[in-house]
Each structure stands twice: as structure tokens, then as C-alpha cells.
Design brief:
Elements: H1 15-29, H2 32-68, H3 73-82, E1 103-104, H4 106-111, E2 129-138, E3 146-157, E4 162-167, E5 173-176, E6 180-183, H5 186-193, H6 195-199, H7 205-221, E7 227-232, H8 233-242, E8 246-250, E9 254-260, E10 266-271, E11 274-278, H9 280-288, H10 295-315, H11 325-335, E12 336-338, H12 345-357, E13 363-367, E14 373-375, E15 383-385
Parallel strand pairs: 2-7, 4-13
Antiparallel strand pairs: 1-13, 2-3, 3-4, 5-6, 7-12, 8-11, 9-10, 14-15
């Protein structure tokens, strides 16, 4: 009598069934090493995909750096002038330079007494340097041209890890090269419209606009402007949004019933006092509005927004966040132009180190004091140095 515990041999009707059965036996008898081999292959594929993604992000970032890098027509002119014998002595400081005295934020003055030990920096960042920040208003209608409604001269001391910001009201009257006395923000528009006439054939209009604005500021304040950085207003909105918004302590309510829109209309904006978390659109409105206040108030708000943006970048460690690299690259590529030598990897790392180490409390805020200027006769809201 057969033992019931013994299984009868399996009967197969086709060769296909026999092959399938053998495969099942082999899989069931496979060692754990086979499973780990499959797992390792999967991990390798994931690593390759991550490497490709990172490579794509870096490639995109490099493309963005190439796009935002801008030649400085002033330097080309300096090289040409250096090959010629000098024809005149350097111009003496103008009376308008007294306007730069300004007023400092008291807390920043107190904070600038001690500096952390500086990290290793590239040679280009060893000495103090200045950057002219230009906020550019580009209208949809090409006939409207472009304007620089924001002019802030930033001076950075890399060794001391300190910086200062001086806002120049856009209605300030200044001597513009090849133009004469006019609103200081007209320098950008004139340079944009006359790029090749001012700096030679093939000169990029954006580069010429920034260069003429920098030359005008140099004459006005009797200081050297080393670099130029331009950002259009929509790019500023996107930049603020890309860091998750900024935190601003609004000292007083801001109501503007005639805030300009892109389609040449107006809208009403209201920003309540107190600590506010602002998205890009709100931050831009807070920085630009001036219908219910003065250009001096607007200058202070612009500096406040810039400090808040730097604070947000530092606190969240966004400079080290590789996940944001593609998004930032897109924003920069489309909306920012600068003469800072960002094609140099050492320069990029140095600038990132400065941004990380520069405490917002160590940024000295300067403004043109209303007592140092007067209304230009017959020029409406325009300002001139006393």
C-alpha cells in the first residue's frame, strides 16, 4: 500500500509545462545572493539616474551663468583709452558728492564693530568692491523703453564681512555723460537706446544701459563702481517666490490706490503693519510703491526687502540646496544680468561664502538725507544736491 505522505510524480502533458516547472524549481532554490544582486543593480540604476539628474542641473546652471554674464563696455573703453596719451587731469569731486553722506541705521552701526575670521577667498574678492544694483522696469510695449527705477550702490568689505547699501532716489538730478543734467534714472534709458553710438558696434543694449548708469553714479558720488547687476521686476518676484517668500516687519500701514500694473492700469494695494510673510508680488509692491509716501521711504523699503531676502537665503541654507539649483538657474537666466565674473568657479564659491557669512545685522543701510537735497526749480518732483 503506497505511503500517503509521498507525493505522486507530477504528470506533464506538454514540453512547455515541463520547462515552466523547471524554472519554478530553479527560482525557489536560488540563493539569497541572487536577490541581493538584483537589489544592487536597482541601486546602481537609481544612482545613474541621480547622477544624470545632477549633471543636467549643473549643465543648466552653467548655461544660466553664461547667459547672465555680461561684458562691461566701460572696461573696453578703459582699455582703448589706456593706449592713448592722457589729455586731461582727473575730474575734481563735484558738489553733488556731498549727497552721499546719508544716514545709517543705528543697529547696523553698532554691529559693525566686530568681524568674524574671514575664510579663504579668491584674489578678486580680497579687496573691498562695489556693485551697482539696478531694478529694471521692462514694459510689454517696446515703445515704452526700459527704466531703472531702483538704484542701490552696494559696497562689500570681504575681509571684515561687512557691507553697505546706499539708495539713490530715481528723481535725483545728475550729470549724465553725453546728455547733461537730467534725472539719474534716465541714464539707463538713454544708454539702452544709444548702445552702439556710446560704446561701439555690437554693444548689447542692456550692457550699455548698465554701463551708462554706472558712469553717471560714479560722477555723481565721485566713487568707483566695480560691477553692475541688473534684475527686472518680474525676475525679482520669481526670485522671492523661489526661496519661499520673505519675512518683513512693516513699520506702518502701506496703502496705494494707484499702484501701476503691466497693462498701464492701476490697482489698490494694502499692506498691514507688523511682521508679514510676503510672496514675490507683495514684496515687489512693498518695494516699489511711492504714491502715498516719498522716494526716501521707498528707498528704505527696498533695502529692507533686500536684507530680508538675504536673511531668508542664509537661514534656510538655500545656497547649499542642490534641489533648488534648476529653478534658480531658470530665474537667473531669464531675468538677471551682471558684470561680476561668475564664469569663474572660484568666484562663485567666494561669493557664496560671502553671502553665507554676511550677517544682515552687519549690512550698513545708508540713505540720501532729505536735508541734503532740494527740489530742482521748475522740475516737479526732481531732486538736486544742496
Amino acid at each position: 500500500m503506497p505511503d500517503p505522505r509521498q507525493r505522486a510524480p507530477q504528470q506533464y502533458t506538454t514540453a512547455r509545462e515541463r520547462v515552466a516547472a523547471r524554472r519554478r524549481v530553479r527560482r525557489s532554490a536560488a540563493s539569497p545572493l541572487g536577490s541581493w544582486r538584483v537589489f544592487a543593480i536597482c541601486i546602481g540604476l537609481v544612482a545613474v539616474l541621480l547622477a544624470l539628474a545632477l549633471g543636467t542641473a549643473l549643465q543648466r546652471a552653467n548655461r544660466a551663468l553664461d547667459a547672465i554674464q555680461q561684458d562691461d563696455p566701460r572696461r573696453t573703453a578703459e582699455v582703448a583709452a589706456a593706449s592713448q596719451p592722457p589729455t586731461a587731469a582727473p575730474a575734481a569731486p563735484t558738489a553733488q558728492a556731498t549727497v552721499a553722506a546719508g544716514t545709517a541705521e543705528p543697529e547696523a552701526t553698532a554691529a559693525a564693530t566686530a568681524a568674524p575670521a574671514p575664510a579663504e577667498l579668491p584674489a578678486a574678492l580680497q579687496q573691498p568692491f562695489s556693485v551697482l544694483l539696478l531694478g529694471v522696469d521692462r514694459r510689454p510695449n517696446p515703445g515704452e523703453g526700459v527704466r531703472s527705477d531702483t538704484l542701490i550702490l552696494v559696497r562689500v568689505n570681504p575681509q571684515a564681512r561687512t557691507a553697505s547699501m546706499l539708495s539713490i532716489p530715481r528723481d535725483t538730478m545728475a550729470q549724465i555723460p553725453n546728455v547733461g543734467l537730467a534725472k539719474i534714472n534716465y541714464a539707463y534709458s538713454y544708454g539702452f537706446a544709444n548702445a552702439e553710438a556710446l560704446y561701439g558696434p555690437g554693444t548689447d543694449p542692456d550692457a550699455a544701459a548698465g554701463a551708462l548708469a554706472a558712469e553717471t553714479v560714479e560722477r555723481f558720488l565721485n566713487v568707483r563702481v566695480d560691477y553692475i547687476a541688473q534684475v527686472d521686476f518680474h525676475g525679482f518676484e520669481r526670485l522671492v517666490d523661489s526661496v519661499g517668500g520673505i519675512v518683513v516687519d512693516v513699520p506702518a500701514p502701506l496703502l496705494d490706490a494707484e499702484y501701476p500694473t503691466d497693462n498701464y492700469g492701476v490697482e489698490r494695494i494694502y499692506i498691514a503693519p507688523g511682521v508679514q510673510v510676503m510672496d514675490g508680488r507683495t514684496a515687489l509692491a512693498y518695494a516699489r510703491s511711492r504714491h502715498t509716501s516719498s522716494d526716501f521711504d521707498r528707498s528704505r523699503r527696498q533695502q529692507q526687502v533686500l536684507r530680508a531676502l538675504l536673511d531668508q537665503v542664509r537661514e534656510r541654507g538655500l545656497l547649499e540646496n542642490a534641489a533648488l539649483l534648476p529653478r534658480w538657474a531658470e530665474v537667473l537666466e531669464e531675468n538677471v544680468r551682471t558684470t561680476l565674473p561668475l564664469r569663474d568657479l572660484g568666484m562663485i564659491n567666494g561669493m557664496a561664502a560671502l553671502a553665507r557669512d554676511l550677517e544682515p545685522s552687519r549690512i550698513l543701510q545708508l540713505s540720501i538725507n532729505p536735508d541734503d537735497v532740494a527740489r530742482a526749480p521748475g522740475a516737479g518732483p526732481n531732486l538736486t544736491g544742496n
